[in-house]
Design a protein that fits this description.
Blueprint: E1 20-22, H1 51-54, E2 61-76, E3 85-94, E4 101-102, E5 109-110, E6 119-140
Antiparallel strand pairs: 1-2, 2-6, 3-4, 3-5, 3-6
Length: 147
């Protein structure tokens, strides 16, 4: 099915930090360290540099699937060790990392309501892409994200 609702053989891709990029990281930390730990189930989270100084639209987390593949949606969590999470976000995808397409015409997806529960958001239809960017739109505490 194109919407993924009846798929029993879907796989959650959780790329390692070599396949994570961020628009910025709080305190200019390295990817894979505190505030640059955006993988699902990681100890903390990704937190953009502007988070505590006046969050700016356009911050993003980018995940690289390695090759163009069929993507049905995204899975997100808030910050593991604090009461911060992203409540709404937009998603863009790309096959080449240069040209980006909005998912569902820039739809705002409902994100997390706590720091640890995984929220699964399926796209209206599957897409073929290598890269996924998640753009926080609104948040609780700070725009923290694991995906």
């Amino acid at each position: 099915p194109t919407d993924g609702s009846n798929c029993s053989n879907t796989v959650t891709i959780n790329p390692d930090y070599k396949r994570h990029r961020y628009s910025s990281v709080y305190q200019n930390r390295e990817v894979g360290t505190t505030y640059g730990e955006g993988m699902l189930n990681s100890p903390t989270c990704w937190l953009p540099n502007s988070a505590k100084t006046g969050f700016q639209d356009g911050e993003w987390m980018q995940l690289d699937a390695g090759d163009a593949t069929t993507i049905l949606g995204v899975v997100t969590q808030g910050r593991n060790d604090a009461g911060w999470w992203t409540t709404e976000y937009m998603v863009k995808v790309s096959t080449d990392g240069k040209s980006w397409a909005d998912i569902a015409c820039g739809r705002i997806f409902q994100g997390n309501t706590d720091m640890s529960t995984k929220v699964y958001n399926l796209f209206p239809s599957s897409v073929k892409a290598r890269y996924v960017r998640i753009y926080p739109y609104s948040y609780h505490g700070y725009p923290s994200l694991r995906a």
